[in-house]
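STRUCTURE:
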């Protein structure tokens, strides 16, 4: 992580994750490949301040992946289809939750927002059976319910 950050520190941003956690396999039948082994390795890292950088990077990356305005996507991300971006975002949300929980804070804000406001994303992960990620279905239900409660509270307070 330190070497990776050092190499890209002057530029910053999630583009440094291009071809790191997910890449587009350009074969006869192109598809996205998620490097789940790398995500599991990141999850095994100790809960230190330095390793919290992954949370920041994942948040930025997820934000780009779930962006509905395709013209605002970085050039390297345009090679992914919307469904491929949803798939990568779902995996990153899952691992972001696990990593942040390990660091003492459960970061589900982007997942909650996406599940609540982006019906296409929600439907896609349901159709994909939550990508068979252990506990992801229960996490999505809980995050959706929590976000729904927050929205209702904010709406009630605004009235």
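SEQUENCE:
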């Amino acid at each position: 992580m330190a070497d990776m950050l050092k190499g890209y520190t002057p530029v910053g941003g999630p583009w440094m994750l291009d071809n790191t956690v997910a890449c587009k396999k350009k074969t006869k039948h192109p598809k996205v490949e998620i490097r789940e082994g790398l995500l599991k390795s990141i999850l095994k890292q100790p809960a230190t301040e330095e390793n919290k950088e992954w949370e920041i990077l994942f948040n930025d990356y997820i934000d780009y992946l779930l962006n509905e305005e395709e013209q605002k996507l970085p050039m390297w991300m345009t090679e992914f289809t919307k469904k491929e971006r949803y798939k990568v975002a779902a995996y990153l949300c899952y691992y972001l939750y696990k990593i942040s929980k390990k660091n003492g804070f459960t970061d589900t804000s982007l997942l909650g927002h996406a599940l609540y406001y982006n019906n296409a994303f929600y439907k896609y992960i349901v159709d994909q059976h939550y990508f068979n990620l252990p506990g992801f279905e229960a996490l999505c239900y809980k995050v959706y319910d929590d976000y729904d409660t927050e929205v209702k509270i904010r709406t009630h307070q605004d009235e």
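REMARK: Residues 62 and 89 are 5 Å apart (CA to CA).
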